[in-house]
Each structure stands twice: as C-alpha cells, then as structure tokens.
Write a structure and sequence with these properties.
It is a single chain. The protein has three helices and six strands. The protein is α+β, with helices and mostly antiparallel strands and 131 residues long. It has one domain: Alpha-Beta Plaits, CATH 3.30.70.1060. A hairpin with a 2-residue loop joins strand 3 and strand 4. The protein is flat, with a radius of gyration of 17 Å. The termini are far apart. 8% of the residues are buried.
Length: 131
C-alpha cells in the first residue's frame, strides 16, 4: 500500500531525446488532428458518497472518446515570496484534471458542463509548444 505522498500508480517513462524532438512530435500530432485540446481543472473536495462516485464514473465513461489524459491530486503546496504552505483539501482545492479534445471552446464548455463537479470546473485551451 502506498504511504502518504506516494502514488500507487507509476507514470509512463518520459520520452528520451532532446527537447526539440518532443516538440516536433507534439506539432506533428496536432497537424494530423484538427481538434483542439482543453484542460479541465476540477475544483472542490467533499467526502465521496456512493452517489458521487457513480456520477463521476458515468461522466468519465461518457467522455472517454474525447479524453487525452486525466489524473487527480493527493495534496499540494504553494510556493510564493512569503514561503511555502500546504494547500488545504477543501472546496477551493484542485482535485483533478482532464485533457480533452473538442472542436472549439464552446464544445469544450458543453462537455465540461455535464461533469458532476463539486465547486466548479475551469477550462483552459492548450496550445502546442512552438519550435
């Protein structure tokens, strides 16, 4: 069992090579696909109930064909000029994210609006790294 601060899943290894090679791969992938990518940030935490878990499971299934990546967080820290502080796990925290593909911002918002969010969802359009 994973301890505090440890994940029970391992991330895929980062591609080897120079930074420019990764950027070219990203640019090629986006040229082959007219869809834009959007980051959905999920805000708010409350103790999950079976109903909440069921609603989230149904939502993940409904957007599976549009999902590029997704994940969650188990804690966080903020670093500022004042120092570092632990971020609270409450209604203001970011609990997870999805990267989805959609035709435009309106389509991404329509997808996000079906999410059973706790506090809110923020949507950001992602742009490809420029060579």
């Amino acid at each position: 069992m994973a301890g505090a601060g440890q994940h029970k899943f391992k991330c895929a290894p980062r591609p080897q090579g120079q930074r420019g090679e990764v950027r070219r791969f990203t640019a090629i992938r986006q040229r082959d696909n007219d869809m834009k990518k959007y980051l959905l940030l999920h805000y708010g935490f409350e103790k999950p109930t079976p109903e909440i878990m069921e609603a989230w499971g149904a939502w993940f299934e409904s957007v599976a064909d549009k999902t590029v990546d997704q994940g969650g967080f188990s804690g966080g820290r903020e670093i500022s000029n004042s120092g570092t502080r632990e971020l609270p796990w409450d209604l203001d925290c970011i609990t997870g994210y999805n990267v989805i593909e959609a035709e435009d911002f309106d389509a991404a918002e329509k997808i996000a609006s079906t999410n059973p969010f706790i506090s809110s969802i923020r949507i950001y359009e992602l742009r490809a790294a420029q060579d």
